[in-house]
Amino acid sequence: MAVELITRYAEEFLAEGALESISGEAEQAGALVADGEGEGSAFLGWRDLPCGYDRGEFDDILRTARKIIADTDVLIVIGVGGSYLGARAVVEFVHSQHYNALPKKTPDIYFAGNSLSPDALNELLTLCDGKRVSLIVISKSGTTTEPAIAFRIFRKYMLERYTPQEAAGRIYITTDREKGTLRRLAVQEGYKTFVVPEDIGGRYSVLTAVGLLPIAAAGVDICALMQGAVDACAAYREPCFEANPCLRYAALRNLFYRTGKSVEMFVSYEPSFAMMNEWLKQLFGESEGKDGKGLFPASAIYSTDNHSLGQFVQEGSPILFETVVLFDKPKTDIVMGVEEDDGDELNYLAGVEMSQINYKAFQGTVLAHNTGKVPNVVLRLDRKDEYNLGWLIYFFEKACAVSGYILGVNPFDQPGVEQYKKNMFALLGKPGYEASKRELEKKLGL
Ligand code: PA5
To answer: Which CATH architecture has domain 4-37+238-407?
Structure first.
């Protein structure tokens, strides 16, 4: 299995027999996912997606990505939440956080429509100047305020720069198959479209066109990414506690929650994992944070954050456990050299690979945090590549669904997010929200 679940740094913090005692619940939760009989099962499309995705659309994604690569200097990807995080997470993990600055044959990629900051949008408009620009707009509902505003502004920009026909050839829309404002606009303007499957929620959608088109446009091997997910899908199919690490990880999270931990800190020793951490925070936060329940998902990149959050983790409120995603091999390495005068006193590391030093940082940290009574669950993968990432994404999606059912919540809805969106519409005066506007303004003292 590509993901090895290591529990030796976590189990000492659990009562004897705790894991066995929750195994039945975990298997029941796993069966709810497998049989599609749990709450929210209308949104289980991600579960078998890797084995049954639309090959025609996949080939179209590859073709479109090749076109974008050939005719684009700057690709603006517009979307928010589940329509944004997965794509950015994969691009930055596979390439780098510095993807745009590194030499490459693929376009620079910037993400817009994930905030309402005019400064952020104006910056992106400025850096498009003199460049060949394309847009990918992603919104399942087609009505979310942040991407809708960004698209209106970028659409105007495109029409000022290109003829209507040229602009239409540079705008790609990923949205619901039939309904929504974005679908209507795409049909009206003749934009090329891709589909967000109805039975897949935003945070589970990275392996659909939502994630795959921008990911492929960044030159990431989406065939290998999907193959990792295909193999994970097969490996985690059976809801058997002993044989299925997704169930064991889901069980561990719930056990720590029951023993009073309220925060799960996702940790990596690779800075390129930072956006994957953000994706994880949405996946688990939106899936489990409801009905007054759920672990708060936080994140850290070590050893960077050893020098900021490390103090709290080691000796602060005993509220958290850590889930560490560890990669054996980096994409490249650096061997420490010898210097004659040893002015920096680092000759004791001569001949040592930097990846080994990073691994010692992991070992030192995990032992220190254990001493501080912070349990560490470790997920170990051998290398940082598309195949392993596809596997890891599927692992987390499955574990999250199972974990939500163990917790007793519907892991596939997000009523809290909907509430905020409705309030925004009302406060901005969107037609149809008049009564709610008056009520909210009263609360605000307006
Ligand atoms: O996971 C979710 O459902 C949300 O984060 C959505 O992805 C996010 O709100 C964007 O919604 P939409 O794709 O409809 O614009």
So the answer is: 3-Layer(aba) Sandwich (3.40)
Tell me the C-alpha to C-alpha distance, in Å, between residue 12 and each of 248, 350, 370, 378: 15, 36, 9, 14
Q: pLDDT tens across 280-297, in order? A: 999 999 999 999 999 999
Residue 421: what pLDDT? 83
Q: What is the pLDDT of residues 52-69, one digit of tens each?
A: 999 999 999 999 999 999
Cis peptide before 355 (omega within 30 of 0): no
Q: Where in the chain is the domain with CATH 3.40.50.10490?
A: 4-37+238-407, 46-220
Q: Indicate the helix (H) or strand (E) that contains 5.
A: strand 4-6
192, with CB counted inside 10 A (0-12, 13-18, 19+), is: middle
CATH (one of 1.10.530.10, 3.20.20.140, 3.40.50.10490, 3.10.20.30) for 46-220: 3.40.50.10490
Given a cut of 70, the residues of the chain with pLDDT beneath it are none
390 Cα: distance to centroid of ligand 1 (angstroms): 21
Question: Residue 286 catalytic?
Answer: yes
Considering the entire predicted model, what is its pTM? 0.96
156 is catalytic: no
Q: Which listed residue (67, 421, 422, 437) is catalytic?
A: 421
Rounded to the nearest 10 degrees, how much is the dihedral formed by the CA atoms of 161, 162, 167, 171?
-30
Give the burial class of 164: count Cβ atoms within 10 A of its Cβ; 0-12 exposed, 13-18 middle, 19 or more buried.
exposed
